[in-house]
Design brief:
By secondary structure, the protein is an all-alpha fold. It is built from 8 helices and no strands.
Length: about 140
């Protein structure tokens, strides 16, 4: 699945509008439908900028990894889920306290503290965790 940024979608929309008159590959109804899809996507991405950080990160994780927020918050010790929760803990702790991150992830604040300490141990050494963290960290550039 390909994810485009707001800037990229806006650029494509502008390009579509400017070439709309000359492009013969789409009929009138198809052009109208595509224009509406662009507008909906731009509105959606604009709305994300005003969403809380934790909402954005859960949406991003679901898009990238296919893991829902509900599944992520379940008491499951699967390594993949633990790595994702650990990465989210570290990223959210940049802006929130351990207690607040614990509330968001439905974990005790001491679990979040442990996750952040474990991150320092694993990042750069465990290739799997490092890759997961870097992928989740990129959501901030969107």
């Amino acid at each position: 699945m390909m994810i485009l940024t707001l800037k990229e979608i806006t650029y494509l929309y502008d390009l579509f509008i400017s070439e709309n008159q000359t492009d013969k590959r789409l009929n009138k109804d198809e052009k109208k439908a595509l224009k509406r899809k662009f507008e909906i996507e731009i509105d959606y991405l604009n709305s994300l900028h005003s969403a809380p950080k934790e909402k954005l990160i859960f949406i991003f994780v679901e898009e990238k990894f296919g893991i829902s927020k509900k599944k992520l918050l379940e008491p499951n010790r699967n390594q993949d889920l633990c790595d994702i929760r650990r990465a989210i803990s570290v990223i959210l702790h940049e802006d929130y306290s351990f207690a607040k991150v614990g509330q968001i992830l439905e974990r005790n604040h001491s679990t979040i503290t442990h996750s952040c300490l474990k991150h320092n141990e694993l990042y750069g050494i465990d290739k799997g965790y490092t890759k997961v963290f870097d992928i989740i960290k990129e959501y901030r550039t969107k």
